[in-house]
Specification:
It is a single chain. This protein is of the alpha/beta class and 355 residues long. It folds into 2 domains: 97 residues, VC0802-like; 166 residues, Vaccinia Virus protein VP39 (Rossmann fold, 3-Layer(aba) Sandwich). It is 30% helix and 22% strand. It is built from 9 helices and 14 strands. The protein has a 7-stranded mixed sheet with strand order 10-9-8-11-12-14-13. Helix 7 links the parallel strand 9 and strand 10. The longest helix is centred in the first third of the chain and has 20 residues. It starts with a strand and ends in a 7-residue tail after the last strand. The relative contact order is 0.12.
């Protein structure tokens, strides 16, 4: 296994392919490279793509879809590169059979990914996931400014959450963070409620997939500690309840309508490791609160007074408002929430002084 920028390279068999898609919480997609070469012009790119035998992966009457990412100064237009890729595949089939596959994003039998880097090296991959792995299948409607599921899961991993302490999201919105926390605590694989592109591949092994999926179902446990979500808005709490219901974990999560100022912390597990609070408060640029500095000051005062013994993490894209929390950060992690640059900050809430 080798980690690089925004990608992890690894080797594995069909079992690995299936388990990776089913179990990975913080990946966007699982790609399988089938070609890697360097090009100087469009003709070389077309020739390289056409050289790959696509018949093992796609029937002549099948559907395909291609997405492209390019960092090349020479090949800047991703839409054009996708079209060129499609032409290479279609021409290969037409020359061999006189017929051609079609392009259909929603009903593709084969999803493909083309990446061109700054040095004009081309990576051609089969997308075994299809739709991004953030699409868990549990979120149908959302409230204002929801987090991406993969980002929410990544935040929980960075916070060290494993389900072995009480968890609270006191501004839960439509419930994404709470849902991801509940799945982690229950050892529930995030991909249990969706389908994947590899299920339409010619080499799909239904028996192996059924066995792997059953193993994942057998691994689910009852979360050992409380999981709480609350929000000041009743409609939003109802959306969160629908979200948790689709995960199958609603009976193990307490959702309430409550103002954070009056939220009560669950009893800590121990004096050293009380529990975890994770929240995504308004940034003001997305949801208007009026006095944003005062709102964040209230968050800090409430944490300091009512949540002693806990660790609190706040994600926000408003750096000035974060200063109003008035608590010392023990970690400050930069990340992106969609197009918004944010900080994920940790606050250790001691009983008395740290000393």
């Amino acid at each position: 296994m080798e980690a690089s920028r925004r990608v992890v390279y690894c080797e594995g068999d069909k079992t690995f392919r299936y388990r990776a898609n089913l179990e990975l919480r913080t990946a966007i997609r699982v790609l399988e490279e089938v070609g890697h070469f360097r090009v100087r012009n469009e003709q070389e790119l077309y020739n390289g793509l056409k050289k790959i035998d696509w018949a093992p992966w796609l029937k002549v009457d099948g559907n395909l879809w291609i997405d492209c990412v390019t960092q090349s100064e020479r090949f800047r237009n991703g839409v054009y590169l996708s079209q060129l890729f499609k032409d290479a595949i279609v021409d290969q089939f037409r020359e061999k059979t006189g017929e051609r596959p079609s392009v259909d994003k929603e009903n593709a039998d084969l999803y493909l990914h083309l990446h061109v880097d700054r040095e004009n090296y081309v990576s051609v991959s089969l997308n075994s996931s299809g739709a991004g792995l953030h699409r868990r299948g549990y979120r149908k409607r959302t409230g204002g400014a929801p987090l991406n599921e993969v980002l929410a899961a990544g935040m929980l991993c960075l916070a060290g959450y494993d389900g072995e302490v009480p968890f609270v999201d006191p501004m839960c919105g439509s419930g994404t963070i709470v849902a991801e926390a509940a799945m982690i605590a229950a050892h529930q694989a995030p991909g249990l409620h969706r389908d994947f592109a590899f299920q339409r591949w010619p080499d799909f092994d239904a028996g192996l997939w059924s066995s792997i999926r059953q193993d994942a179902l057998n691994a689910i446990r009852r979360p050992p500690h409380p999981i709480h979500g609350s929000d000041i808005d009743e409609l939003t709490v109802n959306l969160a309840r629908l979200t948790l219901d689709r995960t199958g974990l609603l009976p193990h999560v307490q959702l309430t309508e409550a103002d954070f100022k009056h939220a009560v912390a669950p009893t800590p597990v121990s004096e050293e490791n009380g529990g975890l609070v994770v929240m995504n408060p308004p940034y003001e640029m997305r949801l208007q609160t009026g006095d944003i500095e005062g709102f964040y000051e209230m968050i800090g005062d409430t944490l300091k007074t009512n949540w002693q013994g806990y660790s609190a993490w706040i994600i926000s894209g408003n750096s000035d408002a974060l200063k109003s929390v008035g608590l010392k950060t023990s970690k400050r992690i930069p990340m992106m929430n969609g197009p918004i640059e944010v900080r994920f900050c940790r606050y250790d809430l001691y009983k008395g002084s740290k000393e």
